[in-house]
Amino acid sequence: MLEGFIRRLGSLRTTAWILAGLVIVFLAGLIVPQKDLIGEEQYTIWKVEHPDLVGALEIFNLTDIYASPLIMVLWSLFFLNLLLVMARRLPLIVQSCFIKSGEQTSVKPFKGGVQEVVKGAAIDDVERVLRKRRYFVIRSPLSLQAVKNRFTPLATLFFHLSFLLLLAGGLLSFYSKFSNLVHIAEGEEFSYSFSTRRLPEFWGKTPVNITVEDIHVTYFKGSLPIDVRIRMKVKGEEAVIGINRPYRKGALSFVIKDIDVAPLFVIRDKSGREIDGAYAKLKVINGEQDSFRMQGYELRVEFSPDFINSPFGAAKQDKSDMDSRFVDNNTVRREITNPAVNIKVFKGESKWTKLLKLGEAFDTDEHSISFEEVRLWVSFVVVQDYGTYVVFAGIIMMCFALVVRFLFVRKEIRAHITEEGTLITGKGEFFPELFKEEFDVLLSKISDNPSSSSEKA
Amino acid sequence: MLPLETVFVWAAIFIYSITFAFYTYALVFVNDWVYNRVHYGLIAGFVLHTLAFGIRYMELGNLPWAYGYEVAATGSWFITAFTLYLIIRHRQFKAVGVVTLPMSILFLGYAVVIAESALPMSAATNSIWLIVHVFFAWLAFGAYVICFALGVVYLLKGRFPQARGLQKFPELKSLDEYMFRYLVFGFITDAVMIASGAIWAKDLWGNYWSWDPVEMWSLVTWLIYGFSIHVRVTFGWKGKRMAWLMIVALTGMIITYFGLNYMVEQSLHFFEVWQEL
């Protein structure tokens, strides 16, 4: 019974069913909103609006389908089936790569192949033509067998092996990956050791030490950011990185996620003595409002990179109005040329509103608040993933195996002497019509008869 | 779109439409004189279409790799390119243009409708991997569209074997094999597209796979076509079953490339020039 179960589990029919099951589950995951993809907030809103529907979907894990027991079972079956199929087919594939030599006086035509009797052609002629076309030939006095691309079927194994590599890489990523966001302004140093691994820390915590020295953004006509260069030091090593050009050291990488402005606000007392100052890392460059606290004040800030040519909030309007993205229209400027902040300050019952250009200050009841400098800050995704290279190896192996398998298809030719002439029969994998064309060319070379056409066996 | 580019795009749509009309006329009324010359219209439209891209390149410095209009216009270009390749390489498949040309017109028309200002590529799309990823994506798309077209023709010819217009198409055996050839080509290029996307994603987002809707739909589409190859190779599915599979499978591709813009609000793949970076 166990044998029967293993045989059924390792059958190609089971493969087809599992593939179909995976497709159905993935499709379900794309139709039903997924908790991880839409975010906690959106999910909660949806749940509150449709409690019965979401409750029903949650019972079957449909709102977290990619991590559900169902998909785990399907993936387990997939890889189990893969292993069983490969174990069963490997000896057959290896065997098919080697032709048995021996005397052949009769040759059966291939099922679904082509055949032709060529008068006046000797076996030697056939062999000569086939060898020229890089066939591997085994001769007997009155017959021959020839194979082209005989090792190609091994590519099928490599293709399927690549899935196992992808699985191994995926598991390694899942259990060893460390990922976090780091926000650093120009001139700032950041040091920390942290980990989000799911297994006990075999590798220990990963220390991170970064100093961002300079951030430079290139704009197209002052409006559209088209390049970023960040000069930084990582563990004392100089590096220049950009979008699509992350810093990499082994499995560790720093990827730029976001760039925004960090205006310097300084609070002074009435005598002019500096009490506090900070580069506030704000998310304001696209026209949003952000806030922070300093010395008991709450500061709500809007930022304009060029307040002379772009009103406050122009970038935000631009974001929602797809038709207004005209480069020649100077209402949306993002290059920082004339920076200003629209600032609302709250302390207790008091409130102040002021537009400050760079270098300006305004007075509250007890202090003055000045806007003295603008720096940029960058948000990095710091990732350490040991599974990446295994996954990439699997991907490359898969692509290579696919190309080899279908570009260099296996072709077989047999020939033997009959009373009528030399009977030549052949078959190619996957593309019979294509093989028929090649067979006709072979025949014409053998018989020097261009009008010779083959007959289906 | 740029002004001169607009002229060439509209001219291409016009020529494609006229060509399609002549194709239909030639097949329905079995007019060999028209049929033997109809591909010149296709070539003329294709040249105009290519010139439109050339103008865009001269102005912006990049080929149309990203954003709504560019995606749709490039899709149309690749459909026409594959059709021309099939016609030039295998004359007996000339009539397949009557199925692929409407799709080309549809995509180019859609591109014109959603066209926005001509803008350079944003920092996020400024990568050699974008070119590799998008190029192979379009190769896969073009190949799958040909599979779809051959599937439609196969079913029609199988259903109406005596129809005069359908006699221009090759025999069913040939249609079936070419369907499989283009399926294999599409599958391989699709795999390279996904692979290059994963490598690029690692550089751009820090993850080679983010379970993003576009990534998921690409994988689903690839699995569907992989399933098609599987059932053909292992269970000998051919002919009608294969034709139906190719017709249904294209919906996955259409959803991945175009439909998700309307179905999903957020995706890492929605690159907009104005976004943070």
Write up this protein.
The complex is a heterodimer of chains A (457) and B (277). In chain A, the strands form four sheets. Chain A has a six-stranded antiparallel β-sheet with strand order 2-3-18-19-1-20, with helices on one face. The longest helix of chain A has 28 residues, at 69-96. Chain A is elongated and about 120 Å long. In chain A, a hairpin with a 4-residue loop joins β10 (252-269) and β11. Mean pLDDT of chain A is 83; it is low at 319-331 and 449-453. Chain A has helices spanning 2-9, 12-31, 35-38, 40-49, 51-59, 69-96, 123-132, 154-176, 314-320, 388-407, 432-447; strands at 114-118, 136-139, 143-148, 178-185, 189-194, 206-220, 224-234, 237-241, 247-249, 252-269, 274-279, 289-294, 297-304, 340-347, 350-357, 361-363, 367-384, 411-417, 422-428, 455-456. With 457 residues, chain A is an alpha+beta fold. In chain A, 29% of the residues are buried. With 277 residues, chain B is mainly α. Chain B is flat. Mean pLDDT of chain B is 87; it is low at 273-277.
